Predict the structure of Pyridoxal phosphate homeostasis protein.
Amino acid sequence: MDTETLIRNRNDVLEAIAKAAEEAGRKASDVTLTAVSKTFPAETILPLLEAGHRVFGENRVQEAQAKWPKLRERFPDLELRLIGPLQSNKAKDAVALFDVIETVDRPKIVRVLAEEMERQGRKLPVFVQVNTGEEPQKAGVVPAEAQAFVTACREEHGLDVVGLMAIPPVGDVPAPHFALLKRLADRLGLPRLSMGMSSDYLDAVSLGATEVRVGSGIFGAREQRDG
Ligand SMILES: *Cc1c(COP(=O)(O)O)cnc(C)c1O
């Protein structure tokens, strides 16, 4: 994709977010656009940084490590978010590289993240991932366990939980999942909600998303790969 198209895509998404937010009685500035750059090389990402975009999402620690340290040298104020599953043996690298972790999903990861953040002196904001569809193969805590899990993250491990994140089941109408995540977050007093991707981010904004994660809607279709 040429640079002009890439930047136009990003601006179109921002405009659509602003419109959906206003229609829902919210402010455009209440919604952050995370540009999901997984599978795309640094050369593709660079023009977006040059155009002023700062918030990016990656779903693999190793891939992000290969691309982002150099980009960050040039753009120290960028914000990199982990939006994919985290293995405990990657927690150290993840804490060093990312600015936000959106996929805290099980007690073991809570423990190792808390230890690494303490060790590195980097207390990152995190989101707890909720498996709203209760899919067996999907990461995330089930809705009924969200409250106890968030409490343990905060009180036993001192994590800075700022919100909830979800990926609705493929093939389901996403709106009920977004509404469920919003209800849970309200009940837990959590201000931020990461929900909505290229195909459904406008619904997510209407239902209260404060962060949307848009990949193909900005960068174009990805080559197939698992995850
Ligand atoms: C890849 C990915 C996205 C972006 O998906 P698109 O459909 O390309 O917008 C959003 N969230 C997560 C967790 C992802 O892995």
